[in-house]
Amino acid sequence: MTGVSGCGSWPGTDPLAVQQVVLGELAQTPEGVQGRPYLVRPAGRGPTGSALAQALALLVDLPAQIGPHGWALADRPGRDLARAASAVREDLDALAVAGHGYTGPLVVPVLGPLSLAARVWLARGDRGVSDPGALRELVQSSASGLAEHLAAVARAVPGAQVSVLVVEPQLSDVVGGRIPTFSGRDLLRSVASSVAAEHLATVVRSVRTAGAEQVVLHVGAQSAVVEIAAGAGADGFGLAPSGVGDWELVADLVERGLRLWVPVDGGRAGDGGGPASGGDGPADVSLTGGGPAGLARAVAVPWGRLGLPAAELDDVVLLVPDQGGAPTPADARRALSRAIGVARVLAERAAG
Q: Is 315 within 8 Å of 260 (Cβ atoms)?
């Protein structure tokens, strides 16, 4: 069945309220559509509740704090990191209550280590991605922390079949050498695609060992880096149709067994992550406007043109991007309903 899930935050400040909405909507989807509820973050908690703060709170033995220019690694943990860790615990507690008795798929979205390293500053230096040794340490710490996070998710919802969605909105900038230096007058050296794939493979192996049934790598806006998902050993890849420069690359990965996850509706970037972040997730690369049929065609038409079987549209998962910037919870809910509508159209096409 064509799936529907999401990544990112939701308007509001109450973790339980937003989790109940998302889980309730996606636990009861129309026939032919598989809802995949996801662990959601309230957007109204400020910088200690952002995706970056969450990712930093999950790091093992790498404390961080908010400095003059944003989040930076630190010599010892402080109040900012304690608040971020508290927000993570609040979200897990809300998931445990909202998901009591739930059995089925559950998606855990996380900010990937390369985008984390592109946003966080070193304690004494430039961004984390600027130093190969620091980057390696961040990746290893992130992999360990995510494994512990999955164990906590399993305790919160024992009946969940967990998929991890590693969101890497800065991946193409990291690989393309487009991350600015501290001064802004130059660009940091690029990370080779093979090195990026190796780092992400570390995370994929760690969360898979921790019990994830599948790991999906959202590569952001550029299909040029989509091959990294295969190199990292991911089970699927996320990419918006508006970001596809070469659908043949997409077809190649699908034919190799990777599942396509597609953001289908706009929404504005959520609670920010500094000058290089572009928000908490890949909301800015999603298709916007049009009804479900038109949005479904953006996937189905090139899919058919490349000779991919229509029946395999059943394997596509549609993503509601970060909704933290939505004006109201009702707007975010409409985005979720629209994604379900698109999934229904794709499911009908798959059924032929």
A: yes
